[in-house]
Design goal:
The structure holds two protein chains of two kinds. Helix content of chain A is about 65%, strand content about 0%. Chain A has helices spanning about 1-10, 10-50, 65-75, 85-105, 120-140, 145-175, 180-185, 205-220, 245-270, 285-315, 320-350. In chain A, α8 (about 205-220) runs antiparallel to α9. The termini of chain A are far apart. The model of chain A has no long low-confidence stretch (mean pLDDT about 85). Chain B is an alpha+beta fold. Helix content of chain B is about 30%, strand content about 10%. Chain B has helices at about 1-30, 70-75, 110-115, 135, 140-150, and strands at about 55, 80-85, 95-100, 120, 140. In chain B, the strands form two sheets. In chain B, strands 2-3-5 form a three-stranded antiparallel β-sheet. In chain B, β2 and β3 form a beta hairpin. Chain B is elongated, with a radius of gyration of 26 Å. At the A-B interface, α2 of A face α1 of B.
Chain lengths: ~350, ~180
């Protein structure tokens, strides 16, 4: 056994083992997150409305997601007559792939960075924007008026929200001086006032930047109150109207995967990633303790942000489409521009 | 300019207020129970709840009905049928047939009030559903008392000598948590 480990630990083989481990890990992480975030979502919705939520399958309904997955997997993937067969079948794949690719670039812990890309942030945004195209293709190819209306809304919404989001990112990149995600996290190590969210001397409006980023993230992932893609009260199920079985399930998994990516990004950019904010106190602890604590810190912050996403969904009604565009063009973009200007002024001129 | 700023700030405040309210409701679930998980548990039924009438029982688990037919006469909807006879060795008459047509009953309670021996009371049954009308148009109170007493171990179900032959009505199942039925004050 130890000989095998030693053999695999040697260089050309180790990269392949590492690749296989990270691929399996990312796939499992995406799948489990999608399944259990649905459970969290249903439970939170129920608690906000003072109901017990899923209770029947397993203790507190904990096996419910598995039952749902089995049901979705056992259903037929229907392809209605008149649809564009190729695009219709390819759209779920197209929406899931970039979502999973994003996970590869995320830094989960000091020792857990699947791919430490120099332009990681850029790569993330490149992958994340494909999601809109996939949604549009799926809606267009399904030959359904509700889907097409939904697709038109989603595209204009995503264009509107990509701009303030990228402006905010540029602000943070200015503050950190790097596009490498691990480096951005490394800059925020030490005490918690090194986190970007407390760097008020570089950017006094950093809280507004965070809010802008968070709102744009909600809009980019098509979450309530910006869930124009699936406005079930007006458009049946929006872009997913014609999808059944697991192809519908894949759209759902991609939605949750995108939420996890967005919240991880918020954690990395604003809340110090895997730093617990008490760096100097842990200085004497062995490295593996630090790595584990860091991983726990990352996931604690990540899931707090995800809970807020769900909490927002069950608090606010869906905005009107025009209100949505107004919010972006009239409020978020000016705010993001002012923040960017102020930050570059404080950093480069003074 | 000033107006739109006011709008933004006011909007933000109202958003925060909304989120505080939902969080409040969310957290209340951890402080005390949310609603009763209905099919598995039920709330206690109030004492004055009026289900369809059933027989009360004495210590021996027998009905105190003397087949006086007061209930039958007082019923405004004509939904009670009582027949009785004086059994050998018994001091009083006892009912041999007591049928309630619950499809007609308006739960007015005249029968319970008029009964000279307090032999009738309201049940606390509210989970009433069946696929045939016969289950509720002919509720046999004597049989019902027998099954209830057998469940409590007070009395063995008597051999069906007096009970009329019926096409085996499906008795509605009762939820477990209903408190034991006791005579009304």
């Amino acid at each position: 056994m130890s000989a095998v480990i030693e053999f695999l630990g040697q260089e050309p083989y180790w990269s392949f083992v590492r690749l296989a481990l990270f691929l399996g890990g990312v796939a499992a992480f995406v799948g489990l997150n999608a399944a259990y975030l649905v459970w969290v979502e249903r439970k939170t919705a129920a608690y906000v409305q003072r109901r017990p939520g899923p209770m029947e399958v397993g203790p507190q309904g904990l096996i419910q997601p598995i039952a749902d997955a089995v049901k979705l997997l056992s259903k037929q993937v229907l392809v209605p007559p008149g649809v564009d067969g190729v695009l219709f079948r390819i759209a779920p794949v197209l929406i899931m792939t970039p979502a999973m690719m994003c996970f590869v670039a995320l830094p989960y812990g000091s020792a857990l960075v699947p791919a430490d890309i120099d332009l990681g942030l850029l790569a993330l945004f490149a992958f994340a924007s494909i999601n809109v195209m996939a949604l549009m293709l799926g809606a267009w190819s399904s030959r359904n008026k509700f889907a097409i209306i939904s697709a038109a809304r989603v595209v204009s919404q995503n264009i509107a929200y990509e701009i303030p989001m990228l402006l905010t990112i540029v602000t943070i990149v200015l503050m950190s001086g790097s596009l490498n995600l691990s480096e951005i996290v490394g800059k925020q190590s030490g005490w918690f006032w090194n986190w970007n969210i407390f760097q008020l001397h570089h950017n006094p409006l950093v809280w507004l930047s965070f809010l802008t980023f968070y709102i744009c993230m909600l809009a980019e992932t098509n979450r309530a109150p910006f869930d124009m893609a699936e406005s079930e009260s007006e458009l049946v199920a929006g872009a997913f109207t014609e999808y059944a079985g697991m192809s519908f399930g894949v759209f759902f998994m991609a939605e949750y995967a995108n939420i996890v990516v967005g919240c991880s990004l918020a954690t990395v950019l604003f809340f110090g990633g895997w730093n617990i904010g008490l760096g100097p106190l842990l200085g004497s602890a062995p490295a593996w303790v630090g790595a584990l604590v860091g991983l726990a810190a990352f996931f604690a912050k990540l899931y707090a942000l995800i809970f807020t996403v769900i909490w927002i969904r069950w608090t606010f009604p869906r905005t009107q489409f025009y209100g949505l565009l107004n919010l972006s063009w009239k409020i978020l973009i000016p705010v993001a521009l002012v923040t960017l200007w102020l930050t570059s002024f404080l950093l480069k001129v003074i | 300019m000033k107006k739109s700023f006011k709008e933004i700030v006011g909007g933000a405040v109202s958003l925060v207020t909304g989120m505080r309210i939902t969080l409040d409701q969310f957290l209340k679930n951890f402080r005390k129970d949310h609603n009763v998980p209905y099919p598995h548990a039920t709330l206690p039924i109030p004492d004055r709840y009026r289900g369809h009438i059933i027989f009360t029982n004495d210590e021996a688990g027998q009905s105190t009905c003397i087949a006086c037919k007061s209930c039958e006469k007082s019923c405004p909807s004509d939904c009670i049928v009582v027949e009785g006879e004086k059994k050998e060795g018994a001091k009083k008459k006892s009912a041999t047939i007591f049928e309630l047509d619950f499809t007609k009953c308006s739960l007015c309670g005249s029968c319970v009030e008029v009964c000279p021996t307090d032999a009738l009371m309201f049940s606390k049954r509210y989970n009433l559903a069946s696929t045939s009308k016969a289950v509720y148009s002919k509720i046999d109170l004597i049989k019902d008392l027998e099954t209830r007493m057998a469940k409590q171990g007070l009395r063995q179900p008597a051999p069906a000598q007096t009970a009329p032959i019926q096409p085996a009505p499906v008795q509605p199942t009762e939820p477990q948590q209903i408190p034991q039925e006791t005579p009304q004050q």
